[in-house]
Inverse folding.
């Protein structure tokens, strides 16, 4: 059975709060692009912590990508990774507001970096679209800098890959690295009270385990 990690809204809020100073100082985003559906809530929470006095809110755009498929004959929340990323919603680069993305710092937000396949697709396709938009605007040499923020990175080998410069220049940020577990987010819960109870139960068990290890030392 796959181990589950239950995450509460409060924990998501604090992960975004903790990551915000580094994002502001190192990435300095002009725009966020949330990958639906898991990136919507973190992006909105993060925006509150990225707002600086006298500045406007950072705009949030949305794209929809699907990789996971419901497991057959399985009643739990777990899904299996498919083989192909499906584009369900994308940006309209013919719109003036999206053409203005050229030359900007853009932060892609998702909830979890599992196989990295979805993030690879998002970065590759958005980079292509921005280069084409720059060419049409007569600004072919203007670079659009993409960065990535996720709440959780699963510490395991990845199927997908992100550009080396993105990884080495501090433009990839995971608020927390976890084992290869199934992350259960609160916006997926149909019974939020039960979800929070399971999260609290797991948190208590982890604290007791840590205390036992400390006493053993």
């Amino acid at each position: 059975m796959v181990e589950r990690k239950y995450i509460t809204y409060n924990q998501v809020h604090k992960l975004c709060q903790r990551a915000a100073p580094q994002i502001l100082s190192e990435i300095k985003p002009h725009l966020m692009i949330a990958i639906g559906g898991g990136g919507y809530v973190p992006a909105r929470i993060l925006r509150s912590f990225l707002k600086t006095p006298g500045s406007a809110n950072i705009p949030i755009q949305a794209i929809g990508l699907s990789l996971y498929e419901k497991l057959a004959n399985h009643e739990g929340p777990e899904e299996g990774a498919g083989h192909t990323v499906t584009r369900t919603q994308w940006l309209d680069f013919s719109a003036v507001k999206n053409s203005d993305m050229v030359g900007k710092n853009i932060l892609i937000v998702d909830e979890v970096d599992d196989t990295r396949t979805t993030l690879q697709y998002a970065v590759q396709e958005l980079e292509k679209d921005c280069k084409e938009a720059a060419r049409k605007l007569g600004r072919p040499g203007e670079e659009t800098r993409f960065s990535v923020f996720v709440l959780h990175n699963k510490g395991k080998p990845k199927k997908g890959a992100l550009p080396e410069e993105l990884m080495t220049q501090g433009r990839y940020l995971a608020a927390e690295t976890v084992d290869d577990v199934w992350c259960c987010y609160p916006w997926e819960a149909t019974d939020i009270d039960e979800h929070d109870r399971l999260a609290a139960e797991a948190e208590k068990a982890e604290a007791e385990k840590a205390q036992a290890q400390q006493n053993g030392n």
